[in-house]
Amino acid sequence: MTRAVLVTLATTLAFYRQNPLQALFVLIGLVLGCGLYTAVAQINASAKASYAEADQILGASAQWRITDRLSTEVAIDDYIRLRRAGFTQVYPIIERRLASADGALISIIATDLLALPLTTAGTDSEGENPFGSSGWSRLTQSPFEAWVPSQTAERLGVVEGEQIRLRDGTLLPPAAIRSQAQQRDQIFMDLGAALSLFETDRVSYLAASGLTASERTSFVDQFGDRLVLSNQSEALDLSQLTQSLHTNLTALGLLSFVVGTFIVFNAVNFSLHARRETLRVLSDLGAVREAIVTAIAIESLVWALLGALLGTLLAQPLSAALMPAVAATMQNIYGASVSSLPVFNAGLFWEALLLALAGLSLALVLPLLRATSESSKSPTTQDDTLLTRRDIASGAIGVALLLLAYVSYPVASTVVQGFALLALVLFAGIALLPVIVLLVAALGKTGLKQHWLARWAFADVTFQFPHLRLAMMALLLTLIANIGVTSLVGSFRLALTDWLETRLSADIYVTAGVVDDETLATEDWVRAAHQRVTTEMTFSGRTMTVVGVDVEAPDFGPANIIDGGPDAFPRWSAGGAETEGVFANEQLRYLAGIEVGDSLALMTELGTRSFEVLGFFHDYGNVNFALHLPSKRFEQLYPNAKPQGWGIWVKNDQQQAAELGLSELGVGPTQWVSQREVLTLSMTIFDRTFAITRALNTLTLMVAAVAIFASLLAVYQFRRPEYALWRSLGMGWLTFFAISGFPIVLMTTLVMALALPLGVALSWLLIHKINVISFGWTMPVIVDAQPITFLFFVVAAVVLAAFVLASLNQRAAVNNALKSLAGE
Amino acid sequence: MFELKHIDKAFRDREDEIHVARDLSWSLGAGDNAALMGESGAGKTTLMNIIAGLDTVDAGEVLVGGEPIAGLSQAELTTFRRNRLGLIFQKFHLVPALSAWDNAALQARLAGAFDKGFAAHLFDMLGIEQLAHRRPEQLSGGQQQRVAIARALMHKPQLVLADEPTGNLDEATSDTVIELLVSAASEADATLVVVTHSAAIASHLSHTWRLASGALTRAA
Q1: Under an 8 A CB cutoff, do A823 and B105 touch?
Q2: For A536-594, what is each residue's pLDDT tens digit?
Q3: Chain A residues touching B91 at Cβ < 8 A
Q4: Residue A568 and which of A50, A193, A495, B170 are 20 to 30 A apart at CA?
Q5: Phi and psi based region of residue A773 (left: phi greater than 0; alpha: psi -120 to 50; beta: remaining)
């Protein structure tokens, strides 16, 4: 048996010695598939590891969070009262994001180390835990220390003992550079030092873990009037927020693997054609089926090992190149700090190996086994019918999947269900493609019956399609994903630009407390100046910002209202006698189920008031709820709320005068910004944020191109004797390439035509389902023809390049085949 | 119709040099037919390829219809094959995507010489008029070869070269097919050369030539 296996293996592998290009294609398919999947998995794992590290720090992981009912911060006195009342699990957190004197963003976190629970403070591995007892005394005693993670120190150019200067001139305590990963990008300080530094007696929030039901009841009884206890596991936390992006990335990684498997399948089909005779001869010569199967299994294992190994190696530079884009996405959209260095995880190699084996069992084992079951005496017959039963079933499945997606659309309510809808659309596309191609070919053949060359060209589509089927499916998947994501990003960009242009319509923004309205009223260059006032509270377990908006401010008007009646804005501006009219952001509609006309009972400084929702407004990217009240009424209800900065509209051609005027009013250069610059910066951040999706789209397109190239080579190999016949009959090269190239042109065109509606449907689902479920806001779906046309041009160029590359040696190969045609 | 003048043709197989033709001369006139026989590896197919312009000679001259084909470009050779040659192969080599009718008409259409009446006559003569709409895989070997014969004659070529045209057929079918080929070629006034191992097949043709060690001798 062993000898039989070895002989069989040596015989089948001899093919690759003679055809190294085939070995290369099998390998390229596996390496690209495994590499892309592993890279994305590695990026996901690294990002999630960052959250886990974040969770180990302080309050992020605490199950319970305590906030002030009326303020964004909690008084330290409340913390002391809670401790004295027996809530010893409670500990205070101060979180601040500030700018250094150099303009670099700094994240500071501070707590009372003595109050930290043991599970967080930890004593087991002091050498690695930043909260081990080592160095505590220097941290908590004057002159205090600021523990700066080494990567942050490097970013800021800070050395041991140096004091970081903030933009307002304040100096942080001397830096102690720490190498522990747990600190992420946050500078850690003692609570006392932070309170003194920020000259405050309030903390960001209080955290607590392990509160029993009776303790929670006791809390509400004793402190419920001033403090709000919210369960963090029910609130939208960081990992929940980023889950949809990770699912998206994982889906793209799997898509890459599926496309990679298609390449393997084609490459294997190619090599199989040449080895079919060999396997039959081996079978006829008495090689037992078990020996052949074992040899095939060994070959598969070798391929899988090579693919997984090289794929994992490829994933390292790939994820290193993509990780900064992902880190930027996390930072910009979710405010999540993620290391931009991917972490190698040995488990991912085994995952890649398993995936490679699974892919090979589909692509290699099944066709090879089918080949061994064919005896040399059994003729190979081809089904004559236009559409085989399999094609008809496939088409029916496609229609059924689309119907299922349509029916399921209203009931899908979780991210996973949303992605299941996306999968339905993608699979429907794959299932519909064969029927569409074959039907169009049949229609063309019938419609152009009088023209024999056209009839032949359409008939040839039917013959090339089985060989190109998988590559075309790979292209279809890639195109649907590309169009879907391109439309999503395009829609988001346009919506965000419109929104920002309204929100940032003021020419200048001056930070709060620097100038007052009376002063501004005397300045000639001021066309209009408006100030917003805000307060925060919790609603349905989520932070809600109530904003006082000037009814005459140009950055909020009737055009911003969605689903409000025609009189909504006047009613809101006038204010109601019995109920207050408010506009709510659409997050309240999608995440809290609020509709126009509903009333919300909210705490004001004058007691509980009822607010009627008159309409909604877009609030892109906000993870919190928001309500807009006319500022005059707001000031009556929340007299102690904090005013925000001033938005100043400058008279025409008075920008220079405005800047000079601000300087004369004593407004420093760091206390005002040009809104244009903010808008530009915002769009730059946006583009950086979505660089990852563009990169992955490009990569999957490249993989699909390789699949098409490999398939075309396979087709040419299969059909070389037939092509030689065409030439032997005197067919010119022009006619030759027209007939042999027409199928790929038609199929690519049909793939594009099918990808367009499905891509738009995908985009619709991403915007109106996934986005709504994940973030609670939506936006108009904009299908911009320009990027899609560009994409189609790219695809046409890529397919043409694959065709030209595959055809490069076609003339010589066909001429050679021509000589041996008669000798067969 | 064609004339080979003192041609030499050899190729190397590892260390050995194999001579297909040594100062070989051969000619057949318009409407003639002949069988070409020889041992396996004697070079029969190479000789056919040389006449068809698919292979070149080391020395000597090849004339078809009085014209030397050595100096023709690839494009000119393609036109030459399309207009003046009919080729029949052992494995039929029909285009699977096309019906029997379209397969048979293929070369005539490429040459711009398709004559529907003549095509119908050929189908009738070859006994495949009922099979015109079938695709190759729906035909038996004998039927496929009849379609291939129709294809080789439909553009009214001057020369038909058939390489083992009955090699894949049983004896009874072989006899029928070769008879049809000879009579159809004769009716079209085409010169016909048939490569075969079978003396029975050769007996259907007017002359038999035998190729051995690079030399061609006429059988008795």
Answers
A1: no
A2: 887 877 788 899 988 888 888 888 888 887 888 888 888 755 567 899 998 888 888 88
A3: 824
A4: A495
A5: alpha
Decide: residue A392, CB within 10 A, 0-12 exposed, 13-18 middle, 19+ buried: middle
Pairing of strands A91-99, A508-510: unpaired
Under the banding of pLDDT at 50, 70 and 90, the label for residue B28 is: very high
Reading the block at residue A527, the tokens are 């066309």
Q: Which H or E element spans position A108? A: strand A105-111
Element at A749 (helix H, strand E): helix A733-765
Q: Does A99 touch chain B (CB under 8 A)?
A: no
With residue A716 as reference, give the H or E element that holds it.
helix A691-728
- CB < 8 Å to B95, chain A: 456, 722, 725-726
- For residues A491 and A779, what is the distance between their CA atoms, to the nearest angstrom? 7
Chain B stretch 10-69, residues whose beta carbon is closer than 8 A to a beta carbon of chain A: 45, 48-49, 52, 54-55
The answer to whether the CB atoms of B135 and A731 lie below 8 A apart is: no
Kind and range of the H or E run holding A242 = helix A238-284
Residue A235 has a pLDDT of 38
Q: How confident is the model at residue A722 (pLDDT cuts 50, 70, 90)?
A: confident
- B103 in contact with A at a CB cutoff of 8 Å? no
Write out chain B residues lying below 8 Å of A730, CB-based: 78-83, 85, 107, 110-111
DSSP 8-class letter at A380? P
Are A584 and A663 in contact by the 8 Å Cβ rule? The answer is no
Question: Which of A729, A739, A810, A821 should be substituted to probe chain B, the one whose Cβ sees the most B Cβ atoms within 10 Å?
Answer: A729
**Smallest Cβ distance to B93: which of A455, A459, A725?**
A725
Burial class (CB in 10 A: 0-12, 13-18, 19+), A775: buried
- C-alpha distances in Å from residue A76, one per residue of A61, A196, A204, A769: 21, 13, 10, 42
Cβ within 8 Å, pair B102-A453: no
DSSP letter string over A678-714? HHHHHHHHHHHHTHHHHHHHHHHHHHHHHHHHHHHHH
Phi, psi of A648 (to 5 degrees): -115, 125
Asked if the C-beta of A453 comes within 8 angstroms of chain B's C-beta atoms, the answer is: yes
User: Where is pLDDT greater, at A278 or A223?
Assistant: A223
Phi-psi region of B93 (alpha: psi -120 to 50; beta: other; left: phi over 0): left
Residue A14 has pLDDT above 50, yes or no: yes
- Provide, as residue numbers in chain B, all residues whose Cβ is less than 8 Å from the Cβ of A385: none
Q: Nearest CA to CA, how far is B132 from chain A (Å)?
A: 15
pLDDT of A211 above 70? yes
DSSP A345: -
Q: Which residues pair with A714 in a beta bridge?
A: none
Please compute, for residue A628, the number of CA atoms within 13 A of its CA located in the half-sphere on the CB side: 25
A455 near B CB under 8 A: yes
Q: Which pLDDT value is given to residue A712?
A: 79
Fold of B2-218: Rossmann fold (3.40.50)
pLDDT averaged over every residue in chain A: 77
- The answer, yes or no, to whether residue A226 has pLDDT greater than 90, is no
The amino acid occupying position A329 is: T
| Contact across the interface for B54 and A382, Cβ inside 8 Å | no
Which of A382, A456, A729 lies nearest to residue B107, judging by beta carbons? Answer: A729
Beta bridge partners of A691: none
- Distances from the Cα of A410 to the Cαs of A414, A415, A758, in angstroms? 11, 13, 18
Residue A21 structure tokens: 């290009």
Asked if A30 and A364 touch (Cβ cutoff 8 Å), the reply is: no
**Any alpha helices (H) in A529-668, and if so which ranges?**
568-574, 586-592, 631-637, 655-664
What is the Cα–Cα distance from A569 to A551, expressed in whole angstroms?
9
